[in-house]
């Protein structure tokens, strides 16, 4: 019950924010993940163009935490610039940014929401190396490793073209840590034969495939 009350309260907040402003398709914003600053805070840059044909007094920028719907943050207030840096992000997540133009006639115009996922990596996953080690009795540990480079959020291991248990719900999730080493593996019991492994890494920037690995089990 309390959860639903919080969701309803968040919806009221969204409506109250939008009720006093007008949308303008020619007034848009964009966001870029800048990574961490010297203090370890994650940063996002929000940029926009002045609404054409309008006289603007100032702008304000607000941030909405997508997965914590009751949290709103004032990022920039009373600014006359057309860019703003949010350096108040303490944790990874997905965020919506709202840019509102206050016009000299007292009205407001809101740019369409700009959503951005914020992580510690800044690009597609690094190319992984498939790792295979024998545990004896035809048991093998098969996985991947990244020594450095952008981490992944999910991994998928394919054996002879078929996805392994990494395609089961919640079995594909990785803990990303920016550009630090990353690895994962699972244990497989194999019958004699030839196995070709391919592996896919995924994050919010895209997909990277590993070079296939062929294992012959005697």
Using brief descriptors, characterize the structure shown:
218 residues, six-stranded mixed β-sheet, elongated, mainly beta
What fraction, in percent, of the residue positions are helical? under 10%
What's the quaternary structure here?
single chain
Uncertain spans, ≥5 residues at pLDDT below 50?
A: 1-19
Distance between the termini: 59 Å
Q: Major sheet, described briefly? A: 6 strands, mixed
Number of strands: 17
What's the overall average pLDDT, rounded? 88
Helical region count?
A: 1
Q: Tell me the Rg in angstroms.
A: 23 Å
Shape: elongated
The class by helix and strand makeup works out as mainly beta
> Approximately what portion of the residues adopt beta-strand conformation?
over 45%
Order of helices and strands: HEEEEEEEEEEEEEEEEE
What does this structure look like?
The chain has one helix at residues 2-19; strands at 22-23, 29-36, 42-48, 56-65, 72-79, 83-89, 93-103, 108-110, 114-118, 129-136, 139-146, 154-159, 162-163, 182-189, 193-203, 206-209, 213-217. The protein is mostly beta strands. The strands form four sheets. Strands 1, 4, 5, 7, 8 and 9 form a six-stranded mixed sheet that branches. Strands 12, 13, 15, 16 and 17 form a five-stranded antiparallel sheet that branches. It has a three-stranded antiparallel sheet with strand order 2-3-6, with no helix packed on it. It is elongated. The N and C termini lie far apart (59 Å). The relative contact order is 0.15.
């Amino acid at each position: 019950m309390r959860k639903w009350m919080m969701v309803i309260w968040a919806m009221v907040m969204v409506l109250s924010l939008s009720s006093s402003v007008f949308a303008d398709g020619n007034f848009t914003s964009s966001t870029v993940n800048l990574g961490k600053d010297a203090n370890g805070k994650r940063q996002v840059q929000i940029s926009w163009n002045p609404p054409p044909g309008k006289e603007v007094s100032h702008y304000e920028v607000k941030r909405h935490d997508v997965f914590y719907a009751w949290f709103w943050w004032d990022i920039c207030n009373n600014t006359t610039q057309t860019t703003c840096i949010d350096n108040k992000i303490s944790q990874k997540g997905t965020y919506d940014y709202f840019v509102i133009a206050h016009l000299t006639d007292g009205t407001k115009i809101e740019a369409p929401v700009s959503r951005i996922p914020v992580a510690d990596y800044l690009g597609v996953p690094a190319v992984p190396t498939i790792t295979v080690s024998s545990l004896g009795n035809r048991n093998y540990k098969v996985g991947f490793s990244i020594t450095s480079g952008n981490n992944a959020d999910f991994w998928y291991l394919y054996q002879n073209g078929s996805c392994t248990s990494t395609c089961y719900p919640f079995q594909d999730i990785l803990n990303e840590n920016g550009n630090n080493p990353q690895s994962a593996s699972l244990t497989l019991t194999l019958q004699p034969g030839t196995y070709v492994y391919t592996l896919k890494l995924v994050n919010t920037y895209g997909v990277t495939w590993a070079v296939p690995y062929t294992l012959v089990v005697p």
